[in-house]
Amino acid sequence: MRWLQSVFAVRYNHFRKGTGHIFQGRFKSIVVENQYRMDRLSHYIHLNPVRAGICDVAGLRDYGFSSYAQLWNRKTRPSFLEVGSFLEAAGGLVDSLKGHRKYAKYLTWLAENEPAQKEMNFAKMSKGWAQGTDAFRAKLISGEQDLAKKLKLGVSGAKEFREATWEQQVVEALQLLEKNGVDLSDTRKAANWKVAVAAKLKMKYLCRNGWLGERLNMGVESAVSRYCAELQQGLRPEAHKLFTLISANSKE
Question: What is the structure's pLDDT at 28?
């Protein structure tokens, strides 16, 4: 993919005497929680040309850049292409001509049914670095701290990964300190427990001041930086005690 989006793009632009990106976005890998979500993702991908206005569902059989066209020809279908699961998910369909026709009707219905698309989470299907529940994402983060490196995430994916990690640490710290959203709103910006949480995320996870200021209701970036510097300088002994408590009980 790196070659396709760099070397190929340069050669294409040279041939066409053009400039800029050939493809709209960066290639990325998305972790999918289970087969149930993978089946929904298959429906979403099959309908990509329809959403783009390239063709309708009937025209998908002639669209050469999708696995949907391969569904209809078992003889030329690649051995790695597994169709049984998403057919089953579309109403217990089987890999037969009758099943394929029913799947086409299912996609036609799905393409026109916005509530069904919303229920399947179509709007967020291609975003982020993982498709799954919050528990699944938290498990990935806690069990695979080097996930971003392993998946070679793009800029947006890596950003979401970092922020998901920060969010998990904030939630754990608030639970330990027995604080909640009301406390975040009603407590002063420079409260010692807020400074302790912010300092932990800054030192351990390189969390940005702006993100902390918004998430913990601590004000502008410069204020967050100043509060945490005061903790490190020994000017906030109560905040430092809480910082030590949070660090000692961290689930990392």
Answer: 67
Q: Which of 252, 248, 250 is nearest to 145 (CA)?
A: 252
User: Model-level pTM?
Assistant: 0.52
- In sign, the C-alpha dihedral spanning 192, 194, 199, 200 is positive
Backbone dihedral region of 91: left (phi > 0), alpha (psi from -120 to 50 degrees) or beta?
A: left
Tens of pLDDT, residue by residue over 61-105, are 999 888 899 999 888 888 888 898 899 999 999 999 999 999 999
Two tokens at 104?
A: 């086409």
List the beta bridge partners of residue 31.
Answer: 130
Report the pLDDT value the prediction gives residue 180, as an integer from 0 to 100.
Answer: 87
List C-alpha distances in Å: 51 to 28, 59, 62, 95, 115: 21, 13, 16, 25, 15
> Which residues is 32 bridged to in the sheet?
131
Torsion angle in degrees (nearest 10) through CA of 166, 167, 170, 176: -120
Q: Please answer whether residues 89 and 40 qualify as being in contact, where contact means their C-beta atoms are separated by less than 8 angstroms.
A: yes
> What are the angstrom distances between the C-alpha of 1 and each of 22, 27, 41?
13, 7, 21
- Closest by alpha carbon to 249, among 173, 164, 168? 173
Cβ distance 229 to 180 under 8 Å? no
Would you call 19 helix, strand, or coil by DSSP? coil
Total Cβ atoms within 10 A of residue 100: 19
Tokens of 31: 């972790």
Task: Give which of 186, 251, 250 is closest to 216, Cα–Cα.
Answer: 186
Q: What is the DSSP letter of 208?
A: -
Nearest CA to 130 out of 20, 29, 198 is that of: 29
Q: Are 110 and 47 in contact (CB under 8 A)?
A: yes
